[in-house]
Amino acid sequence: MEISIQFQKAFGSEFLLEIDDEVMVQIIAASWLSARSRAVEDWIERVLGRASLKLGRRFQNEQQHNPTTPTSNGSNSLHSNHQQDPASYFLKLARQYSPAPGAPCASTMMEEDDREDEPTELNTINSSGGFLVMSTDKLSIKYTNVNLHGHDVGAVQANKPAPVKRLVYYFEIYVKNAGAKGQIAIGFTNDTFKMRRQPGWEANSCGYHGDDGYLYRGQGKGEQFGPTFTAKDTVGAGINYASQEFFFTKNGAVVGAVCNEMKGPLFPTVAVHSQNEEIEVNFGQKQFAFDLKEYEAQERMKQQITIEKISLPPNVSYGLVRAYLLHYGYEETLNSFDLASKSTVPPIYIAQENGFDEQDITYALNQRKTLRQLIRNGDIDAAIGKLRDWYPQIVQDERSATCFLLHCQKFIELVRVGSLEEAVKYGRIELAKFFELPGFDDLVQDCVALLAYEQPQDSSVGYLLEESQREIVADTVNAMILSTNPNLKDLQGCLRSYLERLLRQLTVCCLERRSLNGDQGEAFHLQRVLNSGKKAKC
Fold first, then answer.
1. Among 252, 282, 312, which residue terminates a domain?
2. Which of 46, 230, 346, 379 is the most exposed place for a label (fewest CB within 10 A)?
3. What number of CA atoms fall less than 13 Å from residue 225's CA on the CB side?
């Protein structure tokens, strides 16, 4: 798991390098050769960033269609049926790029996943109403009775529990009148809390009290915690889901924090307990006295500092980048990268104990590079010709997933250049073979639908004209060639580079960590992690 956490450091690149642009790579490599070790560090950072975004988008798309949590080696329901045919995996991937009618985009899906109800006002039903009066906007309460007994408390919960899909939840009260005794309290309680008691007096509750500055956590007596608070003070209570702590503030400054050991939904709760005590509650409808954004930034910085303290050999990132270039056949980039690394002082070499086995992915490197370049340039006829010469077994079955993706891409390229009549003829000959075959029909329909639009790139099937579609076809051919290696040890290694496996491990670890926290805290989205790393460096 340490490697996964450490890997997040690489997300902070500026993403100036386009890994798929060999010319740019060569230019940048040449300019960096004299910069020694810093050049390689920058290169590693940019390559990891660019590659991570590509794989992250692909993995995010896969997760949207197959929500089963993947294991770190990538085995889930998507892959279990394609152990013998790597091309089937990429066919699935290509089909997933097709948006369902009315389907939201990835960013919208993330927003919907994060959306949850949150408190907006006080609960007029679940309160000790006999001892308080609530304002019509349900954001202010006043104690109107005479405090004769310990249980004559005017307590009230928020109308909703604190939301949990975030780093921090926080709310505040403003003390308009401290009343006779200043026995005002703020905190959190669960749904079984007795509303005739102060928060913190009962089990499953926690409260900071103004008259003595004590913190009560359901243990019958309070503990010294912070200063008292009275009229004109603003006091806040929050939940830090990352550290699993309650924290409290006074007039914009943190008073202290305690461990959160409570279970279940937690409701923001306030209480008044002596005559004329009056408070206003702020659930975020106006600006807080406390700088919540700065607090969140500091919490994230603490996490980053923890990450920075993890010690790993410097050649781990180097090995990831080199293995990525090898896996996807970027031979020229790899040669320049190796040359740059040899110029460092001391030179960087891959340590075998880091687990980077390059034997499988060095296979047929030059041929894989050539085919990738042809496909990415849209020259599908030449790519098919090379395959027939070099690896006839891959295209021997004309109804295989590999042939299907190649024929689809040829059709797409004809549409791209406006050769619609030729595209129709080609579709009738080559795509017609796949009309009745399960697993192919939906992608065939999308390809044919390109003919129906004057501006197909702006249509619902415009995704087929994006570079990502060429990438999928190139990756399919790349994986199929790797699978022909007679000394192949792991078929799964044909599908995914070490970098993608690491992204999967990162995802698994973050999801598991959140699960151990009771599914509390920010929802994990790999694409958001990668994008946030990019913004942090801009």
1. 282
2. 346
3. 27
Regarding whether 108 and 76 lie in a shared domain, the answer is: yes
**One domain, residues 356 and 372:** no
Q: Of all residues in the chain, what percent carry a pLDDT higher than 70?
A: 74
Reported as a single tens digit per residue, the pLDDT across 214-266 is 999 988 789 999 999 999 999 999 999 999 999 999 999 999 999 999 988 99
Number of domains in the chain: 3
Two structure tokens written together for 347 = 């030179």
> What does the pLDDT read at residue 54?
63
pLDDT at residue 20, rounded to an integer: 39
* Domain membership flag for residue 244: yes
* Whole-number Å distance between alpha carbons of 278 and 272: 7
- Cβ proximity of 534 and 11 under 8 Å: yes
For 199, 358, 482, the CA distances from 497, given in Å and listed in that order, are 53, 11, 12
Contacts of 430 (CB under 8 A, 6+ apart): 407, 410, 411
Q: Residue 524 carries which DSSP code?
A: P
Q: Please write down the long-range contacts of 434-439, taking CB distance under 8 Å and 24 or more positions apart.
A: 434/399, 434/404, 434/407, 437/399, 439/91, 439/95
Beta bridge partners of 154: 272
Helix (H) / strand (E) element for 246: namely: strand 245-250
Q: Please tell me the distance from the alpha carbon of residue 527 to that of residue 325, in angstroms, as a whole number.
A: 22
| Rounded Cα–Cα distance for residues 304 and 293 (Å) | 16
164 and 228 housed in the same domain: yes
Residue 279 forms beta bridges with which residues?
A: 141, 175
Q: What is the pLDDT of residues 419-458, one digit of tens each?
A: 999 999 999 999 999 988 888 988 999 999 999 999 999 9
Q: Which of 440, 463, 484 is the last residue of a domain?
A: 484
DSSP, res 343: T
At residue 440, the 3 state secondary structure works out as coil
- Residue 229 within a domain: yes
- Is 389's pLDDT higher than 80? yes
Residue 52 forms part of a structural domain:
yes
Q: Mention every residue, 6+ apart, whose C-beta is less than 8 A from residue 17.
A: 24, 25, 28, 43, 46, 47, 49, 50
The boundaries of the domain holding residue 519 are 1-86+103-116+292-363+493-538
How far is 272 from 19, CA to CA, in rounded Å? 62
Let me know whether 341 and 474 are in one domain. Answer: no
In a domain, 309, yes or no: yes
pTM of the model: 0.74
Q: Which two tokens stand for residue 365?
A: 């490197």
Q: Give dist(CA 244, CA 254) in Å, integer.
A: 16
**3-class DSSP state of 235:** strand
Whether residue 335 is found in the same domain as residue 395:
no
